[in-house]
Design brief:
There is one protein chain. By secondary structure, this protein is of the alpha/beta class. The protein folds into two domains: 2-164 and 254-274, Rossmann fold (3-Layer(aba) Sandwich); 167-250, Rossmann fold (3-Layer(aba) Sandwich), CATH 3.40.50. Helix content is 26%, strand content 26%. The protein has helices at residues 2-7, 30-38, 71-74, 76-84, 96-105, 212-221, 231-234, 255-274; strands at 17-22, 44-48, 59-63, 66-67, 89-92, 110-114, 125-130, 157-160, 165-172, 178-182, 198-203, 226-230, 244-253. Strand 12 (226-230), helix 7 (231-234) and strand 13 (244-253) form a beta-alpha-beta unit.
Length: 275
């Protein structure tokens, strides 16, 4: 990655592109950050790799809020973004260039790349999310970093949790006995937000899918009254006839960050008008 950043020539597209990424393996809030940011604009296209999906190639997940596929084809995070953003459009594709071209053809005024910091061949405005505490600065596998930690100098904004953005969690339909079941990376990060009444915790691999009958069996074993899961998990439980308590996460983004993003978009559009 360090060599690529030095030698790759970036392709510039005639549309503002914002990347929301991170340098650390695992969850850092990219999806809720992207949702919170995209909700501020019209005709936004979000482009994602679609990790964990049971499909390949380019797939339109939604177009201006209309859902066009199912979660197994889209992946959990793109489907969550599609459901959460009724005025945006979501595309999954391994080939980001192809997806950007389609978004432009469909009239996108703004494109956001989910987890796009490593796509160094694309000219874009870079936002890198950083956890509030980092204990190990080594690259993977010795540490949590995808590349050298100092690569964040290539970002336009390094948004630190607790300073530049904040998490708010509320529990929808809680019960007195809940079975926590989740398929997210670093699931222990949910601990500070867990309510009373969690009788057992079941952790599955990131992006994994759920078996309704297996969950029912676990609920019966633990005498649980409901499942407790994240919104990312819940999109993969569509049609489940089980009581669900949902951890709804919302991100509040610092005004200073939002102003810098707005300035980038405004300047990009003015430059394109001149051309």
């Amino acid at each position: 990655m360090w060599i690529r950043r030095k030698i790759v020539i970036r392709k510039k597209f005639e549309v503002p592109i914002i990347s929301v990424g991170n340098l650390i393996v695992g969850g850092s809030g990219k999806t809720p950050f992207t949702i919170a940011l995209a909700a501020r604009y019209d005709d936004v296209y979000i482009i994602s790799r679609g990790y964990g999906r049971q499909s390949e190639g380019l797939i339109e997940v939604s177009r201006r809020g209309r859902i066009l596929t199912d979660v197994k084809q889209s992946g959990d995070e793109p489907m969550l973004m599609a459901i959460s953003l009724p005025h945006a459009s979501v595309i999954v594709s391994e080939d980001r260039h192809k997806a950007i071209t389609l978004a432009q053809k469909n009239g996108a005024k703004l494109i956001m790349l989910d987890d796009g910091f490593n796509r160094v061949e694309i000219e874009k405005f870079e936002i890198v999310l950083e956890p509030n505490e980092i204990k190990n600065f080594f690259p993977f596998p010795a540490g949590p970093f995808r590349e050298f930690w100092f690569s964040k100098k290539y970002a336009d904004i390094v948004a630190k949790e607790g300073r530049d953005f904040f998490r708010e969690v509320r529990i929808v339909d809680p019960t007195s006995r809940m079975l926590l079941i989740t398929a997210i990376s670093n699931p222990q990060r949910l601990d500070p937000f867990l309510p009373e009444g969690v009788v057992q915790k079941i952790y599955l691999p990131d992006h994994d899918y759920f078996d309704e009958e297996e969950i029912r069996r676990l609920m019966n074993e633990g005498s649980a009254q409901s499942i407790l899961c994240t919104s990312k998990d819940r999109v993969k439980m569509e049609g489940f006839k089980l009581p669900i308590s949902e951890m709804k996460l919302k991100l509040e983004i610092n005004d200073a960050v939002l102003k810098r993003v707005d300035t980038y978009i405004r300047n990009s559009m003015e430059t394109m008008k001149v051309k």
